Amino acid sequence: MANETIKLEFKGRIRELRFGIGPTRILCEELDIQPSEMKDLDFNTFIQDIISASLKYDCLLTGVPIDFTKWEVYQWITDMEQETFQQIFDIFLKTRIIGKSIYDRYIKELDKNAGQTTDSLDEKKNSLGTI
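-> structure tokens emitted (131 positions)
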């Protein structure tokens, strides 16, 4: 599942979002951080920036000029349907960036909170997918 992608229209063109080493490197270079420091980023900022990095990576991979700013990506994310964002988020969670997948870490976090009720775990999961 590490190579799942999603095709979406952004700025009048179909683009392929994927997560992994390429977008991670773009994100880290833009923020001047190491991959190990990504865990310290605010989650909402992180998910928005990794989506922007993924769109840039798609342009670089396909040889198309980068024709957007991160601010346009932020607005696109803000305007998208929750279902679309959830699809992106699900792929993101399953992606292996370095070592274990983010999904594995997410499950560990849920396991740590196993003493909570199912409702509170569902609320936590849903809040992670909301911007």
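The first helix runs from residue 21 to 31.
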